[in-house]
Amino acid sequence: MEIAIALFFSTLRQATPLLFTSLGGLFSERSGVVNIGLEGMILFGAAASAIGVQRIEVLTGGAQEWWIPWVGLLLGAAMGGLVGAVHAVASIKYRADQIVSGTAINILALGAPSILLQVLYNNTSTSQEVVNRLPTVFLLGDQLSILVFVAFLLVPLIWWVLFKTPWGLRLRAVGEHPEAAETMGVNVIRMRYIAVILSGVLAGVAGAYLSIGFLNQFVRNMSAGQGFIALAALIFGKWHPLGVLGATLLFGFFQALAIQLQGGEILPSVIIQALPYILTMLVLAGFIGRSRPPAAVGKPYDK
Amino acid sequence: MSRYWFLGVNLLVLLLMLVSPWGVPMREFDGSSYMLNPLGAINPAGLKLPPLNLDWLTPAFGLWVLILIVASGALFLPDERNRARVLYILGGVGLALFALEAILFYQAMDAANQAAVAAGARRPPLRRFSLSLGAYVGLFYALGLLLLARLQLAGGRAFLVRYRGLIVPMVALILAIVIGALVVAVLRPGLGLTGGQGVALREFLAAKLDLVTYTYQILFSPVLSLTGIFSSLSFATPLIFAGVAVAFGFKAGLFNIGGPGQITLGAVAAMLVGVYVPGPAWVVLPLAIIATMAGGALWAGIAGWLKARFGANEVINTIMLNYIAASVLLFLIASNTYKFFGRTVTLPFKAPGFEGRSAEIQPGARLPQIIDLLVPGGHFSWALPLAVLAGIGVYVGLRRLELGRRLLGATGAVIVGYLLGALIPGFAVKVSSDLNSILLNGSFLLAVVALLFYNFFLFRTSSGYELRATGLAPKAAEYAGVNLNRKIILAMLISGALAGLVATHYVLGGGVDGTYRLKQSLPTDAGFFGIAIALMGQSTPLGIFLASALFGVLLSGATTLNVQLGISRDLVTVLQALIIMFIAVGGLLPRYFTDPLRAAQIETEDRARQDEGAAKAAKVVGD
């Protein structure tokens, strides 16, 4: 029983960054812009949060203050949004190949933080540890970051926004048939900008969760493919908030299981780690139900 | 409008010339320097120099100011041909002036050093001297003037558009370099300045500009030495394979982002053959090379088959396969015993020891180091140079004579040349230990073969033609009888095989650290950087080679950069990312540079205008 609870909590912890990122990707792809740069946006968010908090701590003398981690979270979200804006400008204004642009962001996120870390901390892989982490909530003898609850509350909210508000209808229309949406008076370009920047913000929050919630520092390439798993969850969840919730829980469960089974006797953890990717490929091929992307995804819009 | 832009550029050039160092006669190891400037030397670190002859500096600056003023005026001349003429002349004068500056500067340095040594100094006092930004700005400005002159004439814009395959990557490179410079300048204090307080603005600016210039001088410095060139080519080898792999996908309309996974599988296959297959070298080595291709092809082929059979997006699938491959590598090499539901499974692959790595590849399956091919046992061998010369010679000869069978003839000539060259007695050569430690191996030759294959297959075979047709217009190709599904699978198989060949460098050639093993820490980033290479090389064989060489140089220079200036070598990673981004947005250039239809329109319009102009001129002459 204890193991089951530990596994459950571990699943929630692992699923949280996936959920934030995946919901971000949901906005972007529903508006018709492929966002393969989510991985990079997580990293940028994580770096901005950890380094920002560390710098503030230097100014305040390392004391614990309730507001510092929240400022860090804001910094992470803003950084993610900024990188999202870069992707938006490239793929909307300049009609860049969205996959190329996203790849550029991912590669940038491998290199740019290292340069800053080298200057600030004289090493290229980690930032200094911080004391001010995002607050946690006690539950059944375990601790959960407050962002875990935020992530799961976002799911119904985003479902409502996407499927019950005019704005959500417009967003989906823009992703399915932008020309039709335009004739109905929807500003396609603006909708896409908002959606892509929003996806960056959410990925940035996921990064902040990793660096000042889950850990207390930035580590080079700390997302370790979570952005791509989130992308996989988006496909697995068929571009629907509830599907995304299920997919991220499943993938989070695999990750938790892989940690729990380390050195155990049931299955090697490397095999469990590969499961989300294998499942996504099977879904994409239609072996386990068909997953259909928004019709206009990946195509630049020409007025 | 554009004229006023040009005035702005001139002003910027003048400002840069005023504040930046023109030459650095002396630089310490930590980078602090003595900076020459027409307004007087800047010496924040207080270095002492022997007397130098620098009388030419102020007149040279005066001449540049003159050039700037005349060029500014020239753009307002009414007749386009006069404009072009003046600009051509100014550009030529600028180039000559830069050459003169370079000669005078290095002469002065040598003279000072010789004088000091003659006077009894133990070593030359001036070290790490070089021209600097102020002089380089002049060079680039002069080149810019020549280009501007061409643009004044009729058909100028069409000229630019025709070479858009060159211009977009160049502009992207320049933009990336400028942003990289800004990043360095913002993050690191200027050279020779420790604090930030009490520093005059002029000193501050000059030190920052010096820092930026020195950073790029270090990054590009490998081109100046044989060791550096070897090292650069060693860094370039995996990039060539990866670049060709991605470009091959592009040509067929596929985005193969799965390079890392294909490299991993290629490396695993190379290990399996290289460690476990017994036999003589002439069997095992080819087999091991084929194994790398098979491993990569298998991994990419999965994505190809899924796309052909189920329409599944190859981008997502190749990404997923990257992570699955990483798991496969870990599973095979990180540990030898696993438990499945209580039962123990034992694998043979991991060698004893803490680090996850395989046993050593048998000597027969290793690729030789290039230096051992060129200078076996301390004697220069003619085998490789003669083989290359004979191959190129026969190919070009057969092409001139239009005899056909060029490839067959050239291949034969390579073999004959190699055998003949091995018979010619060589001369003794001393190889420095630096050069000996460079990990440039036979994989580089394979990379060149891969480039030739790329060119041959895509542009000289009907299968390659069908593949390109599939990429350009799938529906038209299908209508013409191409089996699209089969082409998709074929393209992914070949692309994967090319990516898998990266493993020949890392595993069979010992390209990671000189040990011939498959390691858990196998670098696979080349698979991603291949995207930058393919984009920058515009998917042409020569372009891919040049782009790889460029990044090889930068990667090689980055190691020095880290040691000397404490700037992370990831600066090159950032430059790569920026280049990808800027090429993706078409270099921020007008749309007719990226859209072939609009480009064709511009070319036609300009040609019409040119013809009109020519007709008018002919009429004037006729009257």
TrEMBL record, chain A:
It is found in: Cell membrane. Pfam families: BPD_transp_2 (PF02653). The keyword Transport does not apply. GO terms for cellular component: plasma membrane. It is a multi-pass membrane protein. The keyword NAD does not apply. InterPro entries: ABC_BtuC-like, ABC_transp_permease. Keywords: Cell membrane, Membrane, Transmembrane, Transmembrane helix. One of its GO terms (molecular function) is transmembrane transporter activity. The chain crosses the membrane at residues 67-92, 104-124, 144-163, 193-212, 242-260, 266-289. This is Urea ABC transporter, permease protein UrtB. It comes from Meiothermus granaticius NBRC 107808.
UniProtKB/TrEMBL annotation, chain B:
GO terms for cellular component: plasma membrane. Keywords: Cell membrane, Membrane, Transmembrane, Transmembrane helix. The keyword Cytoplasm does not apply. It is found in: Cell membrane. The chain crosses the membrane at residues 56-77, 86-109, 129-151, 163-187, 229-250, 257-277, 283-306, 318-338, 380-398, 407-426, 438-459, 488-508, 528-555, 567-589. PANTHER family: ABC TRANSPORTER, PERMEASE PROTEIN, GUANOSINE ABC TRANSPORTER PERMEASE PROTEIN NUPP. This is Branched-chain amino acid transport system / permease component. It comes from Meiothermus granaticius NBRC 107808. The lineage of its organism: Bacteria, Thermotogati, Deinococcota, Deinococci, Thermales.
